[in-house]
Fold this sequence. Notes:
Helices cover 17% and strands 41% of the residues. By secondary structure, the protein is of the alpha+beta class.
Amino acid sequence: MESKWYVVHTYSGYENKVKANIDKAIENRHLQEQILEVRVPTLEVVEDRNGLQKQVEKKMFPGYVLLNMVMNDETWYVVRNTRGVTGFVGPGSKPVPLTEDEIRSLGIKLTDIVIDFGVGDTVSVISGVWKDTVGQVQSINEGKQTLILNVELFGRLTPVEINFSEVKKM
């Protein structure tokens, strides 16, 4: 099954709580391969408050959360029964995935990165927080385009999640 982007409607102001609750359900029910990403899209805007300009993050779609998921009975049930979720966007109870044009307009990249390494290979991190770190690939998540890398931190190996675009094979 292929994952698609869906939109769920939430109580206004509950978007981040819904995201946290779905993330927790993914972990508890081991749905990492089926619900790949949960997003609350935000936008940086400059507000004028009492003559002072302040940069703040505003929700692009108050009352909505985006999900990249494989739609099946279990994932539908988990998301639909998450506290704060009022339902999927779509006619009746049938969720409708976003089109590629809609996804692109939200700034979500659809291009898959082709990787030339596998589990057990040693890779070097070329950007991000872990730049210039070398580690061994523990697992690869093609859907999320991330990998778990064992890096040495304070004398012990620690697993960290890194995007495909941030690593190269040694």
